[in-house]
């Protein structure tokens, strides 16, 4: 048998349309490896909710490999050391991985390349267009989405998905047992509500099929948190259980171009987030605009706790934060409203909210998360203006969130559609009839909207002075 080739899986846990799998399988027998590296990412080690996802995703990949006669080798430690060690142990002729753009992925690549030299091959395939390849007319990089998207579109459609290659397997050394990694919560088990998800490549393909049934109506449906109007593919895409190219073509083939465009554009935002992170590796910590270095954030642990636990007294914010805790995911519009409430109404540092999301989201992605928080804060290189303070009540009414609030804030479920967005404005009689006692069964708002907005604008004016 010829010398084996190592496939090093990272956030690309799939066999279909995976260029590293194709390259290794074409070259000879393979060994499949995943390394749990909690050291190289430092403070950005994978959060708790995504570790839950990772457990089941690895189990699914291992089962898919077993069905083809192979094994998934699990090892733990700094990937820059572990990958070369495994390569040496199996006497690998080549090591293949997809290219990723988080700062720790780049550090891993540098370390592996230093040990393996030309035997280490990085392949593109995690994005529609690799960061750095969408360039301005003068060869520069984009920092603003709209011109970036226009230019990206000129390079689209992406390549059609690669067929899964036939795999032959070399002897695989003994690795760790997945259960020993303790990726799942023990006591208390906060993930009981995560059963709405099916991690793994098959779960991702099923999620695409489900989305195709409503994809024509995405442009309106995506803004309604009580409907399943968006694809909910983000956790699958974050760990690479399906390629973004495959999602693009599935939607573009099934839906007329004008109706597909709003969705394809969101896939463009995913690429854009990686493009920004590639240019600003510390985008998760450092504001894109210098004024925010001297911004007067408040130290408000009680406010933060009320926000994180869904007890702010604003039903739309509380519904979102409870959905996040219960399922590891939050609707995009509600992410914007909830994030805006924390950083503007409460004036809590965006990095604190960003880290809470990092730990709670099954789709946690450093590029998208830092872009989202910096966009809402107004601190990013591409972001909404600071004076755009989301008004939680009118947003809630506008996007028809009554059903969403009833689901996630059940103590308000019996309030009518007119009262549920702002229970403190309801007639006492209506509150009584719905079994709501403000301050007891449901909190009063922890800050008034006008007061919060005025305080935020004053803080900005002070920083700008
Ligand atoms: C404060 C904040 C934090 C966020 N953190 C994350 C995060 O950690 N991980 C993450 O994947 N998304 C994040 N987003 C972006 C967005 O909320 C989610 O991608 C989206 O809600 C996922 O749901 P979906 O799969 O149904 O999206 P759809 O509407 O179906 O969109 C399709 C895909 O496009 C991508 N996408 C959509 N919107 C964005 C965006 N604004 N930025 C980057 N990619 C996008 C996602 O991969 C998504 O699965 C964040 C947004 C905000 C405002």
Describe the structure.
The chain has 19 helices and 5 strands. The chain is mainly alpha-helical and 465 residues long. 46% of the residues lie in helices and 6% in strands. The chain has 3 domains: 5-126, Rossmann fold; 127-158 and 201-279, Serine Threonine Protein Phosphatase 5, Tetratricopeptide repeat, CATH 1.25.40; 290-464, DNA Cyclobutane Dipyrimidine Photolyase, subunit A, domain 3. The structure holds flavin-adenine dinucleotide (FAD). Flavin-adenine dinucleotide binds next to helix 8, helix 10, helix 13 and helix 15. The site of flavin-adenine dinucleotide has 28 residues, from helix 8, helix 10, helix 13 and helix 15.
- Percent helix, as a range, is 40-55%
Bound molecules: flavin-adenine dinucleotide
| CATH homology group of the largest domain | DNA Cyclobutane Dipyrimidine Photolyase, subunit A, domain 3
- What CATH architecture of the largest domain do you see? Orthogonal Bundle
Nearest-integer average pLDDT: 97
Distance between the termini: 71 Å
- What is the level 1 CATH name of the largest domain? Mainly Alpha
